[in-house]
């Protein structure tokens, strides 16, 4: 029998629903409600660029318009309901997932031991015990507080001094945890002083962790290849994901499906009967114009976004200015189940300055759509902590 087919329209709706972008969402955007959003997404990526709002804040705001950044700070630093660590990149993760991260700690430590001597240079490994004792004896510390070179100005992640490298190593391997942030600077403490004991003391077999990681990824994606499942949390390897999918299909835990891409091709993926049973109840997508983060979980896999939505999107940070087609950090803009363009906007002198908007091919910018875009920009003003939108004279690049 041929696998069931998810048409492109149905696949988009399912995918966006799993990412909390299909239908209007209401909630307090703090405490238990904010934690539920974080849990449903699995994690949110953290990024330092702050031209309009930081990535994690914009991701959460796009799901809960009442969200404000202090609510996430409280969730992490006061309530200890979430922690910061690594997926494919730095991320904020629900605390209930911490036991599954122990496998990631061990695997990351093995990789660092193998690669970092050549990559990070000499001396950092001799600083490990010194840094750990400094924090154990004197409490939380940031990169400015540890080592003989404390207080020196940072030159970026590419110029780590030995004590900073040791600090990062101890965090990535799980012996330290991020206690809180000062501005955007991470402050570390011993894991036993940050992670609640009820999560810290749980020990799971690696096979349990892999089963959880891949099952949880499929539930949050709706459909996926084995490689996409492995890439979601970056806990299981690609080979482990392939074996898991084969065994899960044989056991009728998951099923094969064909997913129609934006260009009409078909891509074999996996889903579950329970997920497929929800398809008939999926509503039509909201027609709100939505401003998304460049690191939104629905778009972070650029190849998948292009297959599913026909949206070719790359951040042009490392492209010379004269060769950029768009600004180096532009925001994807969605309406319904379609990406309609990308926006170059920046906070400046109490205003949100819209420097350019590039519509996607076929996305006409008539009065109704321009009104929808302006309404979204008005909504984001509070998050951006500005009071007015200003448009450059040539902002609409039709």
Task: Kindly describe this structure.
The protein is α+β, with helices and mostly antiparallel strands and 398 residues long. The chain has 14 helices and 13 strands. It has helices at 8-18, 31-41, 55-63, 69-78, 98-119, 128-138, 162-172, 197-200, 206-221, 226-233, 238-250, 273-276, 302-309, 367-384; strands at residues 5-6, 44-45, 82-86, 90-94, 176-182, 185-190, 255-260, 266-271, 289-291, 331-335, 338-348, 351-359, 388-391. It has a five-stranded mixed β-sheet, with helices on one face. It has a three-stranded mixed β-sheet with strand order 1-7-8. A three-stranded antiparallel β-sheet has the order 2-4-3. Helix 9 crosses helix 10. The longest helix is centred in the first third of the chain and has 22 residues, at 98-119. Mean pLDDT is 92; it is low at 150-158.
- What would you call the shape? globular
Report how far apart the termini are. Answer: 47 Å
Give the averaged pLDDT, no decimals. 92
Number of β-strand runs: 13
> Helix segment count?
14
User: What share of the residues does DSSP label as strand, in percent?
Assistant: 15-25%
Low-confidence stretches: 150-158
Strand order of the largest sheet: 9-10-11-12-13
H/E element sequence: EHHEHHEEHHHEEHHHHEEHEHEEEHE
Give the biggest beta sheet.
5 strands, mixed
CA radius of gyration is 22 Å
**Structural class, from secondary structure content?**
alpha+beta
* Helix fraction by DSSP (H/I, runs of at least 4): 25-40%
